[in-house]
């Protein structure tokens, strides 16, 4: 019934008891999840996990905040997308906030390597014809500008994708939508003080909205502050349903359809191992 469009099942908090995580998903009627790669060193584990489970899928990419790991070439990312169950490039994008915090006020000019990595991921997605999973924090203008410069503007030939864990203003949401991207909301939408996210939850058209956990982080109310799990994505759907004035079943339905259309558009029956209920 529910689809978690962004989670990190290879992170230690969840991988240490994966069987329990998968059982909890089933009990919560979370029938599918997209497992996100954050480094090339992690990618093999992410892909293998998805390949072993019919209801899991994978991405290939290096998180913008990941410094010090192996830098992938465009061709390496394209080749990764040819592997079983890999359906997107990411997560990629720009994160100026974390880098500036960690490096004691490091200037944006010093983060050119982030922008070059982002461009490589965009180019790989276009060559592989798969969507992008975008991470954006304290870098809205540059993120949108680079997408436009690389041809990701909603025109023919664009691959599009999703801005995951969206926390920006309604104005930025409209700009992302104008480029042809989807918007995914996380447990933050359940937080009382997330006024901008609440407004975004109301304004995004049904056909462009996804839900996620970003687990093991950002657990929704009533689990805020605890380890998050894909089993909690129904709480995200419930809050969106409340904000939009529709039944939760409606949110589960259209976000599931959007996930299929965005990420599984080129998937054949042979790519699915096992039954997805």
Q: What features would you describe in this structure?
A:
- By secondary structure, the protein is an alpha/beta fold.
- The protein has a single domain, classed as Alpha-Beta Barrel (TIM Barrel).
- The chain contains eleven helices and eight strands.
- It has an eight-stranded parallel β-sheet.
- Strand 6, helix 8 and strand 7 form a beta-alpha-beta unit.
- Helix 4 crosses helix 6.
- The longest helix has 17 residues.
- It is globular, with a radius of gyration of 17 Å.
- The N and C termini lie close together (8 Å).
- The C terminus is likely disordered.
Strand percentage lies at 15-25%
Radius of gyration over alpha carbons? Answer: 17 Å
N-to-C SSE string, H for helix and E for strand: EHHEHEHEHHEHEHEHEHH
Count of folded domains? 1
Which blocks of ≥5 consecutive residues have pLDDT under 50? 269-277
CATH fold title: TIM Barrel
Tell me about the largest β-sheet: 8 strands, parallel
Q: Number of DSSP strands?
A: 8
Number of helices: 11
Query: Would you tell me the overall average pLDDT?
Result: 93
By CATH reckoning, the class would read Alpha Beta
Which architecture would the CATH scheme give at its second level? Alpha-Beta Barrel
Strand order of the largest sheet: 1-2-3-4-5-6-7-8
Distance separating the two termini: 8 Å
Task: Write a concise keyword list for the protein shown above.
single chain, 277 residues, alpha/beta, TIM Barrel, eight-stranded parallel beta sheet, disordered C terminus
SSE blueprint:
Blueprint: E1 2-7, H1 12-15, H2 18-27, E2 30-35, H3 40-52, E3 56-60, H4 74-81, E4 86-95, H5 96-102, H6 112-128, E5 132-137, H7 140-149, E6 161-163, H8 170-178, E7 182-185, H9 195-203, E8 209-211, H10 233-244, H11 248-263
Parallel strand pairs: 1-2, 2-3, 3-4, 4-5, 5-6, 6-7, 7-8
